[in-house]
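Re-run with default settings, no changes from the original entry. Doing this only to confirm the output is reproducible before filing.
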Amino acid sequence: MAGEPESVVGNPKVAAGCTIEDRAIGQVTVLAVSGTLDVLSASDLETRIKATAATSPAAVVVDLGDVDFLGSSGMGVLVTAHSDLTPATRFVLVADGPATSRPLRLIGIADIIDIFPTLDEALSALSAD
């Protein structure tokens, strides 16, 4: 996965202060989210994850590295996606910092979904599987 060609799958989508951009890196689809992931934008992420899953990637990575607020609605979408996709498709998160990884750990989501501090670390872990 590291070193594999990267291709843009879809155009960035902006909704309610949240941007979601998807791209393929080998057999992995990365959904890069930025801005605010809350009740106003969570359904857009849910829609993008479902559309991505329909393409049957080996793995889906949701990169929350540029998210400045992660609300409970956004966390709910991530938990639902994990339960809907696994074990057929690996589902992991990239989150580092107080706005994302801290709430994911406090709520217990980090106990059920693999979380990596960087996209490179997530891709390396996926390629090792």
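Residues 96 and 117 are 5 Å apart (CA to CA). The chain has one domain: 19-128.
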